[in-house]
Amino acid sequence: MGRSLTQADLLRELEPVAAREVNRHLAAAKHWHPHDYVPWDKGRNFAAMGGVDWDPEQSTLSELAKAAMVVNLLTEDNLPSYHRDIALAFTRESAWGVWVGRWTAEEHRHGIVMRDYLIVTRGVDPVALENDRMTHMTNGFDPILSIPPGTAEIFAHTLAYVSFQELATRVSHRNTGMICGDPVAERMLQRIAADENLHMIFYRNLYEATFEAVPDLAMEALAAVVTNFQMPGAGMPNFRRNGVLMAKHGIYDLRQHLDEVVKPILRRWCVFDRTDLTCRGEQAREELAAYIHNLETVRVPKFEEQRDRALARERERGALV
């Protein structure tokens, strides 16, 4: 298959793999209910219903936990953008459509349960949260804006992106749960992280099959996604400030991105051991290898040095997060 390959061609060839992976996912997925993960007895009315509006003193979360919870929730809130992108890349036909619907329904539970938890426990300012949700969802998110619809490239780029993004989100949710200081929040975020892991496996396995079908295209899309990767929360209000705080304190940082997300998936796909590439694929692989080398030898060590200095200054000042 060459560059004239269309999206429809690739979807048709990989449909049996998609059907197999949908069935595997449905057998492995655990059905759960958001209301079972929320401490409803902690709830009370706000002023509009005769109660008391939010005050910072009501929250038991640290500033770090607040930042991470807001970033994770607003990321989940942007589901309409992600649904649109996945539906455009996969279409709503056959097994592809079954997956699009099921994945969207499962992802929606994450936003439901996180918001219910934060509002009931008064973990964050609900007015600020709603304002940020409106801004973030209005802006939307599209990691592959420049790729024309109907092409095989839009399928490959979308699939490569979500393979990494689902794993990155799993790491972020898991680590957020560990620093909340609340076993209820930790249980909730572990449940969400388990969902994200199953979603990652679906996409990862499907991209593995894409590599077998169109190795050059798969390598080109992979290199483009990894070297330009952004988390889906990149456009939300205060993302830079909150992202820096999360990175500094080990919720999601460049080292974790490299060692816990990028490298495991690249190993799974045997990216640097493949022998089925032409010059096109080899060039993309060389670009990817150079990027990974730069991460390992320059960017990650520089980040860790800067982080360690910042944490040392905090300890000297007795700063509490």
Short description:
The protein contains eleven helices and no strands.
H/E topology pattern: HHHHHHHHHHH
Mean pLDDT: 94
Strand content: under 5%
The SS-based structural class is: mainly alpha
Number of helices: 11
Number of domains: 1
Task: Please give a structural write-up.
Keywords: Fatty acid biosynthesis, Fatty acid metabolism, Iron, Lipid biosynthesis, Lipid metabolism, Metal-binding, Oxidoreductase. One of its GO terms (biological process) is fatty acid biosynthetic process. The chain contains 11 helices and no strands. The model has no long low-confidence stretch (mean pLDDT 94). It has helices at residues 7-28, 63-77, 79-90, 94-121, 126-139, 152-179, 183-213, 215-227, 239-248, 254-268, 279-317. The protein starts with 6 loop residues before the first helix and ends with a helix.
Topology:
Elements: H1 7-28, H2 63-77, H3 79-90, H4 94-121, H5 126-139, H6 152-179, H7 183-213, H8 215-227, H9 239-248, H10 254-268, H11 279-317
Binding site for Fe cation 2: 107, 166, 196, 199
Cofactor: Fe(2+); Fe cation
Keywords: Fatty acid biosynthesis, Fatty acid metabolism, Iron, Lipid biosynthesis, Lipid metabolism, Metal-binding, Oxidoreductase
